Amino acid sequence: MGGPEIRAFLSHLAVSERVTSSTQNQPLNAIVFFCRKVVNKDPGDFGDFPRARPSKRLPVVLSRREVQELLSNMDGVEGLLARLTYGTGMRVIEALRLRVQDLSFDRNEIVVRGGKGNKDRRVPFPASLRDDLRQHLERRRTVYEENRAGCMHEVELPGALARKYPQAPFEWKWQFVLAAQDYSVDPRSGARRRHHLHEIRIHRAVRRAAAEAGITVRATPHTLRHCFATQLLEAGQDFRTVQELLGHSDVSTTMVYTHVLNKGPLSGSSARSTHSERAASAHHRVSFQKHPAVSCLPAAWNVVVALSLAQTACRWHNAL
Fold first, then answer.
1. For the whole model, what pTM was predicted?
2. Catalytic: which of 113, 116, 136, 203?
3. What is the pLDDT of residues 61-94, one digit of tens each?
4. Catalytic site residue 41?
5. 257 is known as an active-site residue
6. Separation of alpha carbons 115 and 162, rounded Å
7. What are phi and psi of 136, to 5 degrees?
8. Are 254 and 243 in contact (CB under 8 A)?
9. For the chain, which terminus, N or C, has the lower number of CB atoms within 10 Å?
10. Is 57 designated active site?
């Protein structure tokens, strides 16, 4: 297999199969990795193959009624994870990787460790989930103590922390908040321990709850993150604050939510708006203050945003 065969295969995906750009990039990266890292062979020049056109999709956002109906059809640990994702805007994998020490009940914040881009950030602690999370941690502590009695309480640590702190994998503060029910074998070390929940469980639970609620749009766990961001912007939060909460590196990524707000080209209907519609919109903004994310946004976030803007200005000044 050389450059012509690789070019023909990638061209077939784009022209005949009409796949998306991300679908075409997956086999492209896999072939290059296989040639360079596995068989130590230069794949040759095949860079002139036709590429699939990148598509720009709007994020799927549910209404508040649909979100409430979706969450009402979810219970157990999957329901807790869904409400946590909706109340904090975390990615699903970020919520699954939460450790006990990442939850700060006193400071009303949750620390997201090693998010996208291996960056840490803080998100507000939803006040509506404090009691549920306390009760969940009490049940987890009971299971942890039972596992500890049987010497099966070890947990995986990120990176090389296990070598640096040999006793840390056995401590309570490093345990996963959303731990799996059964043990699993680490394919790298062969150790048998309790990992966090598998991501497929929350995907199946959301899909099932959406079908029971009669939601016709394609709802996924990531949809709750889109709802979090959109509803914060609708409530008047600035883009920089939402960017910090979502962990976006560039504010342009956050700007995509302007397309799902009522501030685009379809919003120029003020001449047709009635008094009842304006009153309903005002009530809509006031009622949103009960959102778990808005109700717990501390005033300190304004300071964080101001410092971030100041640091950015200093970097630009130094670059000039």
1. 0.73
2. 116
3. 999 999 999 999 999 999 999 999 999 999 999 9
4. no
5. yes
6. 20
7. -65, -40
8. yes
9. C
10. no
